[in-house]
Amino acid sequence: MKNTVQLIGHVGQDPEVKSLEGGKKLANISIATNEVYYKENGDKVEKTEWHRVTAWGKTAEIIEKYVTKGKEIAIEGKLTHRSYDDKDGVKRFITEVVANEVLLLGK
């Protein structure tokens, strides 16, 4: 089995892009995906999930140049988990998708 994630959704805010030493880029975005289903009684349920996405290098450059808040995109990457200690010493956990491909959809 392979760790592969594919998402199609709308970007929640303009990308956060950083230039690192050596000129390498890092982009962070959040993507909203929607699921619609109906309960047994016929009630419609709409559920939105937010996904944290990180991209490096050329993929980050594409995001920086073409992706804006509200844009519909497709991403492919891998699911990762990491942790860090915040300023108060509390351990925080993050799950994110590290994107290796971005496809621009819609207008």
Q: What would you note in describing this structure?
A:
With 107 residues, this protein is mostly beta strands. The chain has one domain: Nucleic acid-binding proteins (OB fold (Dihydrolipoamide Acetyltransferase, E2P)). The protein has 1 helix and 6 strands, in the order ββββαββ. It has one helix at 57-66, and strands spanning 5-11, 16-19, 25-38, 44-56, 72-85, 91-104. Strands 1-3-4-6-5 form a 5-stranded mixed beta barrel. The longest helix is centred in the middle third of the chain and has 10 residues, at 57-66. It is globular and about 55 Å long.
Please give the CATH class: Mainly Beta
Mean pLDDT reading:
94
Approximate helicity band? under 10%
CATH architecture: Beta Barrel
Round the Cα radius of gyration to an integer and report it. Answer: 16 Å
Structural class: mainly beta
Largest sheet: 5 strands, mixed, barrel
